[in-house]
Specification:
By secondary structure, the chain is mainly beta. The chain has one domain. The chain has 2 helices and 12 strands; from the N terminus they run E-E-E-E-H-E-E-E-E-E-E-E-H-E. Strands 1, 4, 5, 7, 8, 11 and 12 form a 7-stranded antiparallel beta sheet that branches. Strands 6-10-9 form a 3-stranded antiparallel beta sheet, with no helix packed on it. Strands 2-3 form a two-stranded antiparallel ribbon. Strand 7 and strand 8 form a beta hairpin. The longest helix has 13 residues. It is globular.
C-alpha cells in the first residue's frame, strides 16, 4: 500500500511550529546527583499546523484525510512548506553493497548537502551521487558509487537545506468544534514516527 501525503492544498495561516524532543532516562541519586541516559540518537518531532478560518472545502478535505488514516492508525508523509537548513538528519545504515537512500528533504539545495558515514563527511560524485526526487513523497535521494559503498551497519546522516519530509501520524482525536464552529482558529498536531 502506498503511503499518502498530507494535503498540500491546505494553507497554514500562521507559522508552523516544529518541536523536537528526546527520550532521556534520568536517575536521581542521593545528595542531588543525577545520571542521564539518552534513549534516542535522533530527536522526534511534533508539528503543529495552525489554520485560520478554513473554507468548508478545506475543512472537509482535512477531516476526510484524518478519517481515512483512522486517526493514528495509518502513517502519512508530511512535507514542510518552507525551505530550511536541517542538520544531523537520519538517512539510514550502510549495507556494504549497492545502496540508494531517501533524504528527509525534497527540493534539496545541492550545494548545502553533506552526507556522513559514521560521522565522516563523504564526497559527492566520488562516494555518492545525488538524485533529485524519485523517493517516497518525491524525496531526494543519494546512491552510493561502486567501490565506495558504506560499511555494513555504518550510520548515514545528512546536513541539507530543503523542504523537510517526514513520516508522521495524527493523534487519535481531532477536536471537531475547532473545525465546525470556531472558524477563526484551528490547528492540527502531527507526530513523527521514530526511525
Amino acid at each position: 500500500m502506498t503511503v499518502q501525503v498530507f494535503p498540500t492544498t491546505l494553507t497554514a495561516a500562521y507559522p508552523i511550529r516544529i518541536k523536537t524532543g528526546y527520550k532521556t532516562t534520568i536517575t536521581d541519586y542521593g545528595e542531588g546527583a543525577v545520571q542521564r541516559v539518552s534513549n534516542w540518537r535522533f530527536g522526534k518531532r511534533t508539528i503543529v499546523v495552525p489554520y485560520g478560518k478554513m473554507p468548508v472545502g478545506d475543512r472537509d478535505t482535512l477531516l476526510a484525510f484524518f478519517r481515512a488514516r483512522m486517526g493514528s492508525g495509518e502513517s502519512f508523509w508530511y512535507v514542510h512548506n518552507r525551505q530550511e537548513q536541517w542538520t544531523d538528519e537520519y538517512v539510514g545504515y550502510g549495507t556494504a553493497g549497492a545502496l540508494t537512500l531517501d533524504l528527509h528533504c525534497k527540493a534539496t539545495v545541492v550545494s548545502s548537502l553533506v552526507i556522513y558515514e559514521d560521522g565522516v563527511a563523504q564526497v559527492k560524485d566520488t562516494d555518492f551521487t545525488f538524485v533529485s526526487g524519485g523517493g517516497a513523497a518525491d524525496a531526494d535521494r543519494i546512491t552510493w558509487i561502486a567501490g565506495h559503498y558504506p560499511a555494513a551497519g555504518a550510520l548515514i546522516t545528512a546536513d541539507h537545506r530543503g523542504l523537510l519530509r517526514i513520516l508522521a501520524y495524527f493523534s487519535d482525536e481531532i477536536d471537531l468544534e475547532w473545525f465546525r464552529f470556531l472558524h477563526s482558529k484551528s490547528e492540527v498536531t502531527l507526530f513523527e514516527e521514530q526511525w
